[in-house]
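User: structure tokens for this one?
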Amino acid sequence: MRYLRQLRPDPSKLIEEKMALAEELYTLWGESLLQDPELPALLEPYRKAVAASNQAMEEAGTFRECYLCSVKDGQGCCKIGLENECTVLILLLNRLLGVEFPQEREVPGRCFFVGPRGCKILARPMLCRDYFCRRHHQKIPESQMIRVTQVLNEELVLLYWLCRLMRARLEFWTGDFMQELDLTGYL
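Assistant:
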């Protein structure tokens, strides 16, 4: 198994290493994780929670504001390097959910996982899901922002439990040396 020890000036290199490690873990342990007595029972509720969060965000207008900020105004939060908020565990969770990783950065200057229609992965770091900028708070009524935050809570709690379970299983099966599973960073 490779380790993520080298510092890389290009943020694409770090996420590529993380994706490769997640793929390797998926190949070695994916079937075992999917047959685990606890983990699979959380996957469908997690999918539903993500869908509920997406619906709440759509209804509140957060996606629209993100689109306008990114595409029309040339700003946006999903900048290059943000992909490195993804841990190996979150990437492994995506593989368990059937998500294929992009092979290259599709939108220059943006997060590795951003495509023309938004994010290409299902399981995303908390920062990507529960971050609301000043624009959101100026354009979207507080009651709607509260509703979105409440709905997001289930998704984020399930993400926490899934990552915790995966880490516990992998550490039990392979030993307690897998600290790089939670690595984030901007290089």
